[in-house]
Amino acid sequence: MNRYKKITLLHSNDMHGDFLAEQIDDKLVGGISMLSGYINKVRQEEPNTIYCIAGDMFRGSVIDSEFQGLSTIEIMNMLAPDVVTIGNHETDYGLAHLLFIEKCANFPIINANLHVTMNNSRLFRPYEILNIDGMKILFIGVITQEVIASTKQNDIIGTFVDIDDAAEEIGKICNAFNTIDIDFTVLLTHIGFDEDIKLAEKLDPAWGVDVIIGGHSHTFLDKPAMVNGIPIVQAGTGTDQIGRFDIIVDTDNNCIDTFTWSTIPINDKNCPKDDKIETLINAMKEKTDLKYDRVICRISRKLNHENRYKQTQLGAFVADCLKQALGLNMYLVASGEIRTKSLDQIVTYRDLAEMFPFSQCCYSMNIKGEQLKRMFKYVLRDETWDSSYHGEFYQVSTGLTITYNRTTHEFVTFSYKGYPVNDDDIFTVGMTDYHFKNFEYIFGFSRDEIDANRKPRKVATNNLETLLEFLPEYHDIDPDGEYRIQIID
Length: 489
What we know:
This protein is 29% helix and 29% strand. It is of the alpha/beta class.
């Protein structure tokens, strides 16, 4: 029997409902139809092909939101991945809904460390073993602590959030299967690129982990990171590209002999279309078009949100709208809440729904000046400027002006409506449910301090619906967002 066997391992992550192709320059780019066409082409060319997804299939598209993920599962069933792990956005419609959706999936969804806190029973199958060409290939799924953050209101759901605990859990699973001669082991993670590196450092080589395929941090790579002898990869975000390993497995020693890895662009120059899956998506699009293509308003100019870690015109616009609509001193919009890169002058319901797919309720808090400074000093800490960071940066409403020196870690200016903010000043500040409930994780100190000022109030049950009602009357807002938070060295 041949000792050396080839597998082709295709992988996606953080697809976020990126179902439709876009016209970029002279070619069509991305979309599930061409992605499926490429996967089918490789499956025909390479008999030992595996396709896996490292979390976050859901959210980002009105097709996904309108059908609460059921449309995504139907599309994924046609795409036919061999194995998938969950991401934090798989829980956006609730844990009960996720467990229902799992029953609709025709492919295995794995996760080793999401569990019921009362008895530590797992919510999902922790692993999947694929039998290919006489080889046993073990996949183990690991999730980020953000799942705990998004489900914090439900105390019966927990996860091992510490990397040491995650590594220990992986070791238990690997040890349990060493006796049945696993030829190849893949960790399918959704914990972010930096955490993947930390995890790889803690893995015992005797456990036999060969590859880590990650997600969550939307990291684009030129080549794999090699840590503890393990290649770590991600494929960015969306469907504009797919990751590809071509691996020669040494089945005697159960390890990689040689491999190549690259990201393959998905476009009409090198990917055939899958007509069946395109027909399904177009049928779903026709249904959503009837609801979402109505015009809401016209704004003064196109607004951009080109960088998640700086003030943007679109971010300032959204913050100003919510501040005015809710009657607050200021509103903080996390850059990650805004999921599109621009908003055109003619604004449709679709534009707003795709911009704000994570519709949430809004809270108002009374925050002292000293507390507000602490919040922003934590948000603007050194970690924010690391290229692999995947935390929060805030778009702020008009009135608040901050100049922050990265070298001295001090504010040069911190003012409201042109006047310096004093420590005892009180401001009504709005933010969405997720950030309110995870205040300490995001801002670095307990929300108990804030609650002591005045009991927080829920001021809107849905931020998207608030915008839909507000914008037709107040579409003349023209923000100068780039001047609100300035960073100097």
